[in-house]
């Protein structure tokens, strides 16, 4: 089991930046995949960026070149640096952790609101 606590959301103008943080209650090296997802009003939750236990990363096409996922293993924290924000990035951003056979362990944070004004 793991508890995920997100922070860093807020209101920003288009072109601005925000950094989201996700603090995990367990050693993130033991978590196969940690990632950020987002859900805009009326839309399905979608993956934004993932980081595997080995350190490799994966991004949605819509955020490539603008967002960067990283981690601090000493702090058991994963970050999402978001630059050049667009109004279409407005959503609730959720931290996710998956591990175990077939991702049998799958946990979500409570979410943090990101609003980008035009």
Per the principal axes of the C-alpha atoms, what is the gross shape?
globular
Helix content: under 10%
Main sheet: strands, sense, barrel: 7 strands, mixed
State the end-to-end CA separation: 40 Å
Q: Gyration radius, to the nearest Å? A: 14 Å
- Report the order of strands and helices: EEEEEEEEEEE
- Please state the structural category: mainly beta
- The tally of strands reads 11
Quaternary assembly: single chain
β-strand percent reads: over 45%
Describe this structure in words.
It is built from no helices and 11 strands. The chain is an all-beta fold. A hairpin with a 5-residue loop joins strand 9 (91-99) and strand 10 (105-108).
Main attributes of the structure:
118 residues, seven-stranded mixed sheet, single chain, 0% helix, mainly beta, 53% strand, four-stranded antiparallel sheet
Summarize it.
The chain is mainly β and 118 residues long.
Topology (elements, then pairings):
Blueprint: E1 4-7, E2 10-13, E3 18-24, E4 33-39, E5 46-52, E6 57-59, E7 67-72, E8 77-82, E9 91-99, E10 105-108, E11 112-117
Parallel strand pairs: 2-11
Antiparallel strand pairs: 1-3, 3-8, 4-5, 4-9, 5-6, 7-8, 9-10, 9-11
């Amino acid at each position: 089991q793991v508890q995920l606590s997100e922070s860093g959301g807020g209101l920003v103008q288009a072109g601005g930046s925000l950094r989201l943080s996700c603090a995990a209650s367990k050693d993130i090296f033991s978590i196969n995949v940690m990632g950020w997802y987002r859900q805009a009003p009326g839309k399905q939750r979608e993956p934004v960026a993932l980081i595997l236990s080995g350190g490799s990363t994966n991004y949605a096409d819509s955020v490539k070149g603008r967002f960067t996922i990283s981690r601090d293993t000493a702090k058991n924290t994963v970050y999402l640096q978001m630059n050049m924000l667009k109004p279409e990035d407005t959503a609730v951003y959720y931290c996710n952790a998956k591990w175990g056979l077939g991702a049998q362990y799958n946990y979500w944070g409570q979410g943090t609101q990101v609003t980008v004004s035009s």
